[in-house]
Design a protein that fits this description.
The protein has a 5-stranded mixed sheet, with no helix packed on it. Helix 5 runs parallel beside helix 8. It folds into 2 domains: 335 residues, no CATH class; 89 residues. It is built from 20 helices and 5 strands. A hairpin with a 4-residue loop joins strand 4 and strand 5. By secondary structure, the chain is mainly alpha-helical. Helix content is 60%, strand content 5%.
């Protein structure tokens, strides 16, 4: 098979950025929600069961759909046959592997429906856009959800209806929001059948099978937590109030400028869309760099805006596929509407399954420019800047965590694997490889073996004053370890 220059450039770009993802993933320090996800995977591998209320660093049940965590458990089990260090590294590879697979399927799909030129331009967007780079490096569920979502679309275009429906079911079993892929899948299925009676019969199967696959988890959460979608829509289903839940709708939240600002900032690489985290960077002329960054994001985004208003292509398949993309956009806008009115905030990682299709619109817009070669060079330069910024972010985070390595090693070397801790920090269970009851839980210290206190965390949760007071006033705790440099104090429970 002969490949055009566009196909060769696409393949080269996919390989280069795949290597970057893997290097970044293996060298960065796990933080944030990723700690919780990987702690759950490790728990599944060690105990051969899905966690429920175990101490994984949060005062809540384990509720997210478990496909990512099951995959992680398999990675961990297999690689642990070699060593524990390799097993822990393997967990970091889940996101870059599925991120790269998403890009590959996207390339094959776009080349099939459009052409290799459009596929190449799409690869420029998809490989450089910060939100996709972030969540195909960090151990979140986004890249896995995106993979099963686009695989479902690709299989549907190839008339593999059962496999497509199965893949969509797995996407929903990875993240709730994948259910909003349904309208696009149904439209593509409907258009693929000239016989409308037959299409309706097939559509019923396409609707039923993903729901059947994902219903296992929804039923489990309904039994365990009283709400199949816990912690969302908790006011409707009256589920448990343990942990952070979202109980009420407020349509006024939809007008919150903060929700959309954070969405944009996270889309272009600001962690959690919180501009205050940039205070960790001590670069000279930071304000000027931020202005350059903002201009760069607008330049990079502009082809998408232009692409939305281009005329439909003459190719019939490409025409109705573009229509399906617009249906998908409306579906996910509706999802964001529900999310914001329920929670008051939004997150760019919710859009991971949509990014390959945003890339198509972007590609159509970019390829329509009169000076498209000049723009292409500019886009690559801006994208390279995004990748460099990613490296700086990950290095900064790693430096923040590295100072606690001595504390984590003390726990691993001086406590038993089954010892139970009480402490603060979502990432504490992951880093010490022990179960940890969250500090906001009102427990008897006799129920645990050790208490971890560190209120000098710079990038994790601090212990509340009530818990601190209980620790200070307890007569069954004795100091077993302290580190003045890091602020860590570990108490042993006297029995």
């Amino acid at each position: 098979m002969k490949y055009s220059i566009y196909a060769k450039l696409s393949i080269a770009l996919i390989i280069i950025v795949a290597v970057i993802r893997i290097v970044f993933a293996l060298t960065h320090s796990v933080s944030g929600d990723a700690c919780w996800h990987l702690s759950a995977s490790r728990f599944m591998a060690d105990n051969n069961e899905i966690p429920s209320f175990e101490g994984l660093g949060r005062l809540q049940a384990f509720w997210p759909p478990p496909i990512f965590h099951i995959i992680g458990a398999l990675f961990f089990k297999i690689s642990n046959l070699m060593s524990l260090d390799i097993a822990n590294l393997s967990l970091k590879l889940i996101s870059p592997i599925f991120g790269t697979l998403t890009v590959i399927i996207a390339f094959l799909l776009i080349r099939k429906v459009f052409d290799e030129k459009t596929a190449f331009y799409s690869m420029i967007f998809l490989n450089f856009i910060p939100v996709f780079l972030d969540y195909s490096i960090l151990a979140y569920v986004g890249s896995t959800t995106a993979f099963f979502s686009i695989l479902s679309v690709y299989l549907m275009l190839n008339k593999r209806y059962i496999l497509s429906s199965t893949s969509l079911g797995l996407a929903i079993l990875t993240k709730y929001t994948a259910i909003f892929m349904f309208p696009m899948i149904l439209y593509l299925a409907y258009k693929s059948y000239p016989n409308k009676k037959e299409s309706l019969r097939k559509l019923s199967v396409i609707v039923f099978l993903p729901l059947l696959i994902s219903s296992i988890w929804f039923i489990r959460n309904f039994i365990l937590l009283g709400n199949p979608f816990w912690p969302f829509l908790n006011g409707i289903f009256q589920g448990t109030s343990l942990g952070i839940t979202f109980n009420t709708f407020s349509f006024s939240k939809i007008f919150s400028l903060d929700a959309y600002t954070k969405l944009y900032l996270e889309f272009f690489g600001v962690p959690n869309g919180d501009i205050s985290v940039l205070s960790a960077f001590s670069f000279p002329f930071l304000n000027y760099l931020l202005i350059i960054w903002l201009i760069g994001t607008l330049i990079f985004l502009y082809p998408f805006i232009k692409g939305l208003y281009l005329k439909k292509p003459k190719n019939n398949e490409a025409g109705y596929f573009l229509k399906s993309i617009h249906i998908l956009f409306l579906s996910y806008i509706f999802m964001l509407f529900i999310y914001i009115t329920n929670t008051g905030w939004s997150s760019a990682r919710l859009l991971m399954p949509v990014l390959p299709f945003i890339a198509i619109i972007w590609a159509n817009g970019a390829s329509s420019f009169k000076l498209r070669k000049a723009y292409l060079i500019l886009a690559v330069l801006i994208g390279t800047g995004f990748i460099m910024a990613e490296g700086i972010k990950l290095t900064t985070a790693a430096n923040e965590w590295n100072i606690y390595e001595q504390d984590f090693e003390w726990v691993k070397n001086n406590t038993e694997n089954n010892d139970l801790f009480y402490g603060n920090g979502q990432c504490l269970p992951y880093n010490i490889n022990r179960l940890v009851i969250d500090h906001s839980a009102q427990i008897d210290f006799n129920d645990v073996d050790y208490v971890w206190v560190n209120n000098k965390w710079r990038i994790d949760f601090h212990m509340n004053e009530d818990s601190l007071s209980r620790v200070r006033n307890s007569n069954i705790l004795t100091e077993a370890y302290s580190n003045k440099d890091t602020g860590t104090i570990i108490y042993k429970v006297i029995r």
